[in-house]
Write a structure and sequence with these properties.
Blueprint lengths: L2 H34 L18 H18 L5 E4 L6 H18 L2 H15 L2 E21 L1 H7 L5 E14 L5 E25 L4 E3 L11 E9 H6 L4 H5 L11 H6 L18 E11 L8 E8 L2 E7 L5 E4 L13 H27 L3 E3 L6 H5 L15 E3 L6 H19 L3 H4 L11 H11 L1 H29 L4 E5 L2 E5 L9 E4 L4 H26 L8 H14 L14 H8 L8 H88 L1
Antiparallel strand pairs: 1-15, 2-4, 2-10, 3-4, 5-6, 6-7, 7-8, 8-9, 11-12, 13-14
Helix pairs in contact: 1-9, 2-4, 2-9, 2-14, 3-14, 9-11, 13-15, 15-16
Length: 683
């Protein structure tokens, strides 16, 4: 199949989907928006009451807080369960990480709020989950780089030279030959990419689906019809030349649903932006099942289409859309909303209230009859407290009483309120707003009535969990396992641990805890208390190594009890039980000896201790004695040395004296010989 054939198939699917929406849902969804915003019905009469009651808003705004609470009352409302042995730790990590990705990395509360509200108001709510890759560009400056250094810098391909200044220097080499050296000052732009799971709400009018579809997973065609600036299309990697030539129009902004959602001041201008880069282009991100490769088997393809051009066409195995509907109709994609169940009641109630007010206005300002020519009409028309009406005869003015219908209207209003409660499951008792219903009513009766009133809401919550929320979290898990290519550190169960989705299975079972109302909360806590009591009894009687309950399971029950009490993080109250701690606790303890044996052991230990103390004392005494002897010998040796030193010194002095005497004697003899010789010569 060539792209021309693919284009024809795609355009046909788009036209059919838009036509399907226009005939199936657009009018009803537009009307629901108008009723929710309490817009006039168009049948108003000048001078009469024009009030619009708010049954649609009351139904939706009454159900939404309770549904949101179900999915935000704990940190891991969605839990992945292991499918086989060895999956336990991966399932725990997947549970914590996927919930963190949704509620922390993405604005999970806001997404749930808008998702649920779209469904309650406009039949179906749609979100899109996909792997979003962003590119950060930073500039770096380097000076005096050689050619080799510059080549090494640019080797990884993540940098691009923005500016370069090259200097050539000639030097003389060791052999006397000139060497030309080149250095560069460069400014480079470094591009780094990082990806994450992105979850975003899709406005109902932007989502297209085949009229043959019963659900998104089996639909042959789904698409996100949206407005994207030219600049963003180029940043997404599409051919700039093709993008520049795409026509600029925003028919999507002027659909009935958008015009009903936004006020007059919020509605877009018909003229395109003067900045061409910011002109919005209507683009279709379509997921189409077709046999493009000609093997006879239809595969899922992601196709971006704008104007009359296919911007990209790739095969994929992932559909990013997830939908939920509060009141599904079997074998059909679009179901009913709470607005659909409330709009006729709002119209009837508005009409009754308008008539009541008109009747009250007429009763308070009743018309009068006047005999022509017998009364001053100016006085009659000037309604002034204490004023005077001039008449020629007493019966010139006759009041024309208006019978009150308010008493007859109130039962009708009560009937409409009861019908609204039965249709939507939203009542004063269920919301705890009417104290009169609690008078002379037993607690059991109140609980039963509350549970019965909340049955529809609990069903809606279960439908949301099983159809939309479960599918969304399975999609988040698939995206993480497929695209996250490196581990990350995150805080789980009170400590930071490395998380690597590549080691997980992408086919864990999913469990969602859904419970509504005071009665179900009380029932959950009562059941958990009973489970805790049984677990405690087993652990006390048989110990941690028993075959029925582990310490980790007991900690899990405590966590569930804390969550049922309304707290989000059980780690604030109880530490997590690691497998190492659980294995240590499960080891059997050494058997304790009987009392007699214990006494003997203690006596033996005392004797051994005494012997040890005596031996220690003997050793210390011996050490002290040896040290004393060593000290004595050291002192004696020092004394001998001193004596010997003094003796040697005395001998040395004596020898010196003898030597001096001998020298003096020799000198005297020599002097005598000299004198004799002189005398002889004189003679």
């Amino acid at each position: 199949m060539d792209e021309g054939k693919l284009k024809s198939i795609l355009e046909n699917e788009i036209d059919n989907a838009i036509g399907y929406l226009d005939t199936e849902t657009t009018e009803a969804r537009t009307q629901a928006l108008e009723y929710y915003l309490r817009q006039p019905y168009g049948n108003e009469v000048e001078g009469r009451s024009q009030i619009v009651t708010g049954e649609v808003a009351e139904a939706i705004d009454g159900a939404l807080p309770q549904l949101i609470r179900v999915f935000t009352q704990s940190d891991d409302i969605v839990r992945f369960e292991p499918k086989g042995p060895g999956d336990e730790e991966g399932a725990k990590q997947a549970t914590d990480y996927c919930n963190w990705v949704f509620y922390a990395q993405n604005p999970g509360f806001s997404i749930l709020h808008n998702w649920f509200k779209d469904a309650l108001l406009q039949k179906n709510g749609v979100v899109k989950a996909y792997w979003d890759v962003k590119e950060d560009v930073t500039k770096e400056e380097y000076r005096g780089l050689t050619d080799d250094e510059l080549m090494l810098l640019m080797a990884d391909g993540s940098r691009e030279i923005v500016a370069q200044d090259t200097t050539v220097v000639e030097e003389v080499g060791p052999d006397g030959q000139p060497i030309v050296m080149q250095s560069s000052d460069v400014i480079v732009a470094k591009r780094t990419q990082h990806g994450a799971v992105k979850v975003e709400n899709v406005p109902p009018e932007e989502f297209l689906i085949s009229k043959r579809a019963r659900n998104i997973a089996d639909s042959p065609f789904v698409a996100h019809r949206k407005l994207v600036p030219r600049s963003d299309l180029i940043a997404m990697g599409f051919d700039p030349e093709i993008v520049e030539n795409l026509p600029s129009y925003n028919d999507l902004s002027f659909t009935d649903e958008r015009l009903a959602r936004y006020s007059r001041g919020e509605q877009p201008d018909e003229e395109a932006s003067l900045d061409k880069s910011m002109q919005e282009i209507e683009i279709y991100e379509a997921y189409l099942r077709t046999d493009f490769d000609g093997d006879g088997i239809a595969e899922l393809r992601q196709v971006f289409y704008a104007g009359s051009d296919i911007l990209s066409n790739v095969e994929t195995d992932y559909n990013p859309f997830h939908s939920l509907c509060p009141i599904p109709i079997p074998h059909k994609f679009f179901g009913e909303s709470l607005a659909d169940r409330s709009m006729d009641i709002q119209l009837i109630k508005s009409t009754v209230v308008r008539q009541m007010l008109d009747n009250l206005y007429l009763s308070n300002n009743a018309r009068v009859g006047a005999v022509e020519g017998q009364v001053n009409l100016d006085d009659l028309l000037s309604v002034t407290p204490g004023g005077i009406v001039r008449m020629k005869r007493p019966d010139a003015v006759v009041p024309m009483a208006v019978p009150s219908v308010i008493a007859q209207a109130f039962p009708m209003l009560q009937y409409l309120d009861d019908a609204q409660s039965k249709r939507t499951g939203i009542s004063d008792m269920q919301q705890g707003l009417n104290p009169d219903v609690l008078q002379n009513v037993t607690a059991a009766a109140v609980a039963a009535s509350t549970a019965a009133a909340g049955g529809k809401l609990e069903l809606i919550a279960r439908i949301f969990a099983e159809t939309g929320v479960k599918s969304l979290f399975q999609g988040i898990l698939q995206l993480l396992c497929k695209y996250q290519d490196k581990p990350t550190l995150m805080r789980m169960r009170g400590k930071y641990i490395p998380v690597d989705p590549r080691e997980w299975s992408n086919q864990y079972d999913i469990d969602i805890s859904v419970g509504l109302g005071t009665g179900s909360k009380a029932e959950q806590m009562t059941m958990l208390q009973m489970v805790l009591a049984k677990q405690e009894a087993i652990l006390q009687q048989f110990g941690p190594a028993n075959p029925l309950v582990s310490v980790g399971q007991y900690r899990g029950t405590l966590g569930r009890f804390i969550e049922a009490a309304g707290f989000t993080d059980s780690a604030e109250f109880f530490k997590e039980v690691t497998p190492e701690i659980e294995a240590q606790l499960a080891q059997p303890k050494q058997q304790q000896p009987d009392p007699t044996t214990q006494a003997l052991i203690q006596q033996s230990q005392a004797q051994i201790q005494i012997a040890q103390q005596k031996a220690q004392a003997d050793i210390q005494a011996a050490q002290q004695k040896a040290m004393a002897e060593i000290q004595l010998q050291r002192e004696k040796a020092q004394a001998d040395i001193m004596i010997q030193r003094e003796k040697s010194q005395a001998q040395l002095e004596l020898k010196q004296q003898e030597l001096n005497a001998e020298i003096q004697l020799k000198a005297a003899e020599l002097g005598a010989d000299i004198t004799n010789n002189v005398n002889i010569r004189g003679v």
